[in-house]
Amino acid sequence: MTAYLIRNVSVVGGTPTDLLIRDGVVAETGVGLAAPDATVLDATGLVALPGLVDLHTHLREPGREDAETVESGSRAAALGGYTAVCAMANTSPVADTAGVVEQVWRLGREAGLVDVQPIGAVTVGLAGERLAELGAMADSAARVRIFSDDGHCVADPKLMRRALEYVKAFDGVIAQHAEEPRLTEGAQMHEGEVSTRLGLTGWPAVAEEAIIARDVLLAEHVGSRLHICHVSTAGSVEVLRHAKARGVKVTAEVTPHHLLLTDEKATTYDPVYKVNPPLRTAADVAALRAALAEGVIDIVATDHAPHAVEDKECEWAYARPGMLGLETALSIALDVLGPQWDLIAERMSRVPARIAGLDSHGLDPAPGVPANLILVDSAARRVVEPAELASRSRNTPYARMTLPGRIVATFLRGEPTVLDGKAVK
Hints:
Elements: E1 4-11, E2 16-22, E3 25-30, E4 39-42, E5 47-50, E6 52-57, H1 70-79, E7 82-87, H2 98-111, E8 115-118, H3 134-139, E9 146-147, H4 157-168, E10 173-176, E11 189-190, H5 193-198, E12 202-203, H6 205-222, E13 225-228, H7 234-245, E14 250-254, H8 256-260, H9 282-294, E15 299-300, H10 309-312, H11 329-337, H12 341-356, E16 373-383, E17 402-412, E18 415-419, E19 422-423
Parallel strand pairs: 1-4, 1-5, 6-7, 7-8, 9-10, 10-13, 11-12, 13-14, 14-15
Antiparallel strand pairs: 1-2, 2-3, 5-16, 16-17, 17-18, 18-19
Helix pairs in contact: 4-6, 6-7
């Protein structure tokens, strides 16, 4: 294993120092380190952060390898500064058994670019009718700890309660896609002034807020851990704030696109802007940004959702919802939050790692810590070119936008997966 001496780097925005990486860990830090056998990297002007951790990634394999594979998604993640991603269960077949989650986990290990932690389905086939093999998935080689029917809400309150009770035994987490389905039938975008003007069926904010309110009460009653996926409304923020004030074990995520884009994008009828939950209003975006800074929303998660060309380059009504996110998430965070490195590390690495139980991730570079880290050039700016993305899909809402920041290097257990902004393998 090659040793690396990273010179003159700012660790989480601190005073420049040197980092020596040896045998998969940060062996030493300090000014003027010497290591004749190490490969030297000049990191003047760069910032070292703990590798990013994504709690919400769609890798599509098995079943939709035309849109993404574990390998291509892992490469996109590494280029985006991630060292661990949690792969959602809505594959084909659904990841609702120990066999399927182990398959995804092994594919991640074979790719070797990021740690791929499968998320198991809550219900069999995501159908919302009976619980999946939660215990078997938890006991499998993949050691699943997060369960979600993402893309579908666990709408039955009795089933949701049973799921929360079941995972409590091994400190698991139920990650809810908060959408009351009876309020969103036929919905095409956010319900509001723009949907009325365009004549498109609306997805009301209350459909999200009602499920969150119900589920935080269930989680409080059971004493179990609940995670809310892709929060998108100001009302949801207030429900979460109230729940946290009462000590409910609830965490929440927001996506980069819900921090930046609004429902006005739908006026273009470009299906790249169709997503679930939909893009909301400028007032919602402002509330989400404030909640992220405050900590009411705990983390940024990409909801990276690659789609084949035929599923996105079609009429709005027939397009599949979803956007790419892994390769641009840190840039959006920098655009929204600015270079608040400690806050970015907290929201994109430390806290998501703790929620997922990934003990070797989310740790600031320091002696003895696993060398899962990234080097960021915050002064750089880049134009997003869809054809240059590592993902097999091209449905990025940031095409040809100029975004701040560049991932210079990504290290997974001391081995570079990205160097000079390019994938190593």
